[in-house]
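Support case: magnesium ion complex. Customer-provided input:
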Amino acid sequence: MTAQTKKINIIQAINEAIAEAMEADPKVLVLGEDVADREGGGVVGVTRGLSTRFGDERVRSTPISEQAIMGAAIGAAISGFKPVAEIMLMNFTTVAMDMIVNHAAKLRFMSGGQTGVPLVVRMMTGAGIASGGQHSDFLEAWFAHTPGLKVVAPSNPEDAKGLMLSCIADPDPCIFVECSRAYGTTAEVPVDLAPIPLGKARIDQEGTDVTIVSYSEIFARAKAAAAELAKEGVSVELIDLRTISPWDRETVLASVAKTGRAVIAHEAVRSFGVGAEISATIHEELFDVLKAPVQRLGGPFTSVPFAKALEDAFVVKSSDIAAAARATLATG
Amino acid sequence: MTAQTKKINIIQAINEAIAEAMEADPKVLVLGEDVADREGGGVVGVTRGLSTRFGDERVRSTPISEQAIMGAAIGAAISGFKPVAEIMLMNFTTVAMDMIVNHAAKLRFMSGGQTGVPLVVRMMTGAGIASGGQHSDFLEAWFAHTPGLKVVAPSNPEDAKGLMLSCIADPDPCIFVECSRAYGTTAEVPVDLAPIPLGKARIDQEGTDVTIVSYSEIFARAKAAAAELAKEGVSVELIDLRTISPWDRETVLASVAKTGRAVIAHEAVRSFGVGAEISATIHEELFDVLKAPVQRLGGPFTSVPFAKALEDAFVVKSSDIAAAARATLATG
Amino acid sequence: MVSPTPNRPVPDAATQLDIYRRMSTIMQNDVASRRIVKTGRLVMPYYSPRGQEVIPSAISVNLNDDDKICTIYRGIHDMIAKGVPLRALWAEIAGRVTGTCKGKGGPMHITHPASGVMVTTGIVGSSMPIANGIAWAAKLEKSERVTIAYFGDGASNIGAFHESLNMASVWKLPVIFVCQNNGFAEHTRYENATSVDFISKRAIGYGMPGFTVDGNDPLEMYAAANEAVARARAGEGPTLLECKTFRFFGHVFGDDDHYMTKEEKAAAMEKDPVPAFRARLIADGHASEEQLVEMETQIAAEIQDAIDFALGSEVAGLEELTLDVYAATGAE
Amino acid sequence: MVSPTPNRPVPDAATQLDIYRRMSTIMQNDVASRRIVKTGRLVMPYYSPRGQEVIPSAISVNLNDDDKICTIYRGIHDMIAKGVPLRALWAEIAGRVTGTCKGKGGPMHITHPASGVMVTTGIVGSSMPIANGIAWAAKLEKSERVTIAYFGDGASNIGAFHESLNMASVWKLPVIFVCQNNGFAEHTRYENATSVDFISKRAIGYGMPGFTVDGNDPLEMYAAANEAVARARAGEGPTLLECKTFRFFGHVFGDDDHYMTKEEKAAAMEKDPVPAFRARLIADGHASEEQLVEMETQIAAEIQDAIDFALGSEVAGLEELTLDVYAATGAE
Ligand SMILES: Cc1ncc(C[n+]2csc(CCOP(=O)(O)OP(=O)(O)O)c2C)c(N)n1
Ligand SMILES: Cc1ncc(C[n+]2csc(CCOP(=O)(O)OP(=O)(O)O)c2C)c(N)n1
Ligand SMILES: [Mg+2]
Ligand SMILES: [Mg+2]
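Agent response - structure generated as follows:
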């Protein structure tokens, strides 16, 4: 009894999730720059069709005013709505950090539980589209360091849809990170996909020699590395973290307890990145079990450059991940 | 031949550093809300006397407009000035993150080295003064994760003065974090103190059993813990990191290579905090040398609460640090 | 500036008494607060609203229980006028578990949705974007609910003000932006930070009605508020009200007022709106001395009861530190 | 809106030709850029300035070499008009080491202090706060330098606009805020995001002169700019110029223009300012057809030379990836 599936990309997956949520719950709203159909349904079309289907009141294009966008979302959220706000690119969260960090994240706590803030902030990012230094940063570590927020970064259409469904249903503010390089990735996704729980990683492939942990588009590179390593006879346990905060310590630790070796890879700058928390935790929890130090991969300590060759060099490659795995296998 | 000293607190130390820099270099400027003497010379008086001494053009009180403050500082900096900007409290950087992260941090790189941004952003923070959730956060991990910025957090008057002198002289943007609880800390400081180099930690006390790394006001708590531990016969090597980015890997790693054990403590929320980077690095670099997992201490994953008992419980205590040291000594 | 229409609404005697009752409560509450802070029985930064009693009192008599407000650190008068129960208010200020927010928010973050206080923020300007969202929710629900965003003159210079007024106007939101212009932002005089003689003129830039009102005159305030509320309920969109007033006790209680002359302060305090309105009520035959004394005595008793209740209440247990971070408890 | 004084300055024939030369360069450069992007020989998001040639051309003839500008992603016309050498410009766009920024900034971040281009930003609104700082520097140096902040109509709705205009007015900075109002922000029509009929009206809220100018009319633009520059040089502070124009090729080149009607677009393009001014120059006897053809031919050759230079240049070596992060190289 196989579920019916449909081949969709990540753009369509997120679009479907929001549409299904809007259909099921009249409290779900969408707002952001150019999100309505009159303005094209989003710069890459993630929200296309929604305003036509659910009306211009529930799907609102906004002025270029990210503080006002987040404020409107927060105000609506504490009033019982479930807004899905778009901040076009992750770097633009920098003009709305007060709303996100001092308000969305804290209002439940500061009110002693009276005002929950059930909203989703969607944003795209990633190097590789020749946009240069101000449009490409992965800043998920900032949000993961912020109590009160949840942080999600899917790598494929099924997760994108299932996690978005969960984020919209979640009673707390969720940061939903979309990698522009991955938007076109297609896959067969069950038509009646259930929400995928937040905080649960996905073991993409079981293995015994080394655990590779990744998320967002870099996960595809980790998977390519795993394939490469398989040819060399290395059995990789491949984990897609999916949720960065709260991250799935149990799954990751159980895997590394088994393999004794770990590699973590993300696009964000390596220093003080998400990998640091995961690496530190693995070392702290599995001190006696680890066979070699955890290998952490991330962007070099620099801005994302424009020139193609430099931009490509900025992003962790599957060969880097494979090399790190080999390095850990060569020690201990 | 002992240098002449003067007993000053951290407020005075920073004030003296800025005054000396302004005296020596007419390009040094000060701006921020209420920083001029007409407005009281800063909410806690850090910039008191400067406008009277150096004039209202070089020391400017501003509207409540943090983006404009940082923009003015950046524009002046790329024009050859050296502004010392005050963002009153660290949480208020959230309304100016675009200027700090997308501009101050990146302009040198994005211009291919043409426009350096020699500025200092001062800010205070810290729990313990009953200000609640929006005035107390330590967010240094965000800035440390941002290539192009340097991040400094002194624990005592001498460091505060010497590091501020270096920050002002530095050709790149420096985030200077002041803990309000520590402002009143006094010490004898050499009258003609030389700048203290950025990126160099200070070994406050040599020891052989365990390394404790800390910074800002928590350093005092680490020191108290070391004193406590000394009574138990534990020899602590106590390191004040002083600069968080770039952090002094050499000094920390050399110390832990010697002691084989480490505890890291800061006020910021533990998860995805600065301690994660340091812990991960120590484990990665000293895998075979470490006798026990690194102990990381930081705030619980929550907002800073108002009620006194809860607020006190939020901040890492010297007893927590001592307990962590004992825990690491009990293993391995 | 433009002032309200000539045939403006006048409150009847009962409404005038209601305004006075709220004013007197605010004033007496302030006296008690200052006493209790001065004697050190409660520790908190106290932003006295003394002198600004008229504004929220004359506004609130135009509001229903289900109308909402967002206010700021200097907002206890706004809360009292809107009807937050004094017991819960005092208990919050005292950091007790019986407080509006279980003592976790504190004076700067009081929330009490039951009486319409949705957000109290410590970030200058941030009441406005969130108020928009609350107003948007009312509009979506086709309710006649009105939302008030309270803020100060200094806040009119921050970006959030601009984004909020623009969005509210474009979206025709039922929100009223109430600027309590007390002539100072911390220690900065209005004209040293603000580029326009009347903040209400900024309404022109948003195609929005804007008025400057004598914030010490209950009848003028009532009329302006009444019209703005009517406009909002009729779906005609937002209004900007600039209410001129004065804060008697500086920025934060303890302030030394060095930034103004003694004469200036004395002159402003001579216009104390509370005794003035009291006298006017008697002169106009709306109340007798006895009646007012009785009312005031009853208020005094209520305040004393609230204080006793607060100080007799328990503080929150340490488990509260990580509760309410997320709906499903705040686990790390 | 208010328009400039009646006895407004008129450019002499040489100046008019100079304006045209800049306009023609911008237009021809745009034709070449679109060709090269369309054929895929260069890969970048291209924000065509076609249709907006007049604005920076008529402004720049009023500027000296040491006057400064801050511009935005759609700013290549501003750069060309200000005198950035075409070779370095093209090389930057092509990501070559001979580019203004060694190819590291790219089209969205071109910096060329030698010709006064201090910042090109990809963040909406962020040219303004930094322009203030550059103007502040000029003021501190008692220089007569003027700074121009270019931005779009959409940017007039973001917080940075507000903070910048207010601070510039309070500080009487020699800065000119030039809003190139092309009627659209990405796909959002002016009136769907902006609450006032003329952006220049917002100047009222900052006690600043503000004018709406026909941005397609070189003589009107010249006069308005000339007066604003004179005001700035005389120490009389900032000006807001709203320059009405139209962008011929949508937001980013490739855009499908679905958000406007064909007729609307055709009507706007009929007002093409380049051929119109060309005809006028001839009609007014300021130039002959031959003269203009010769000029245009020479410009065409210069552009071709620049393209050849760029495409013949080397790309930066990978070591550049971490250079220029800090003055002393960017080490991790
Ligand atoms: C973004 C931000 N910047 C600075 C501050 C510090 N601060 C707190 S209150 C205040 C003055 C606000 O003045 P005004 O808006 O006039 O309100 P008032 O206190 O006079 O009621 C300042 C600068 C802050 N809380 N938030
Ligand atoms: C803070 C921020 N928000 C959103 C964007 C995405 N964005 C880039 S250009 C643009 C439209 C800007 O319109 P306008 O200011 O009118 O300038 P134009 O492109 O028409 O020249 C938007 C929304 C951005 N770059 N920065
Ligand atoms: Mg004020
Ligand atoms: Mg535009």
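Chain A touches chain B through 55 residues (CB under 8 Å).

Case will auto-close in a few days if no follow-up is received.
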